[in-house]
Write a structure and sequence with these properties.
By secondary structure, the protein is of the alpha/beta class. The protein has 7 helices and 6 strands. The protein has one domain: Rossmann fold (3-Layer(aba) Sandwich).
């Protein structure tokens, strides 16, 4: 589910607990594009710097541009693969806000806008932080809510949720719960980076296996070079 460190049951501790508590309210699909390497033994890793600096005060423009390119390219190049995997087209987009930076003030709003450009201008709705928005890395069912005046954009629709970093999954899955409770037919979470830490022993085997740089042609569904993406890029060079 989170493409992180797993045990014999193929779910990490976070995802196993989430499944046990919330089951059908969680995202139907999770798409993670790359990894951020936290607490690298050789010093701060560029991947960790990128996902933090793009939303700093003020943001680092180059990092913001890089994340925008990553997510926009992923959707433009691989949407057909993702659609076949999900079995449906997306009908609406939202993103994971925070109590400190809700709605359009969050840097993720710009990333959602970039995805909107390559998905036939799908409507964007905004989640509002709920009473459980301060719960750090613990999944609660009231972290977010869909405002009443925007539920018509969600009810019966296939929703795409944009996030920047997946650590425990509590924020992204909290957003999925809000969308499902507002009547979403399916929920897909699309997250730029799965955060792994060199300080946490279960993560190290995964981190040690990461010997290839990020490649936009690698399909986020099956991890292989995508022929349709390659044809797309060749046709636009």
């Amino acid at each position: 589910m989170c493409r992180g460190a797993t045990g014999d049951d193929r779910l990490c501790g976070y995802c196993r607990n989430h499944q046990r508590q919330f089951r059908g309210l969680l995202a139907d699909r999770t798409i993670l594009l790359t990894y951020a390497q936290g607490y690298h033994p050789d010093g701060k890793h560029q991947s960790a710097h990128e996902v933090r600096a793009y939303k700093a005060h003020p943001p680092v423009p180059r990092c913001s541009q890089n994340l925008r390119l990553v997510i926009k390219a992923a959707v433009a190049l691989h949407q057909s693969c993702i659609t076949r995997w999900l079995g449906a087209n997306w009908d609406a987009i939202t993103f994971v806000p925070s109590a400190e930076r809700p709605a359009q003030t969050h840097p993720l709003a710009q990333l959602a806008g970039d995805v909107q450009q390559v998905t036939s201008n799908l409507p964007i709705f905004h989640l509002t932080p709920g009473p459980g928005s301060d719960s750090r890395r613990v999944l609660v069912d009231n972290r977010f809510a869909v405002p009443k005046d925007q539920r018509s954009m969600v009810n019966g629709r296939n929703v795409l949720i944009i996030d920047d970093t997946w650590t425990s999954g509590a924020s992204a899955q909290g957003a999925a719960i809000a969308a499902k409770r507002a009547g979403a037919n399916t929920v897909t979470t699309l997250c730029i980076a799965r955060w792994l830490s060199w300080k946490w022993s279960p993560d190290r085997p995964v981190l040690q296996s990461l010997d290839n740089p990020y490649d936009p042609l690698v399909c986020p569904v099956d991890g292989l070079i995508c022929r349709s993406a390659a044809r797309f890029t060749w046709g636009h060079t």
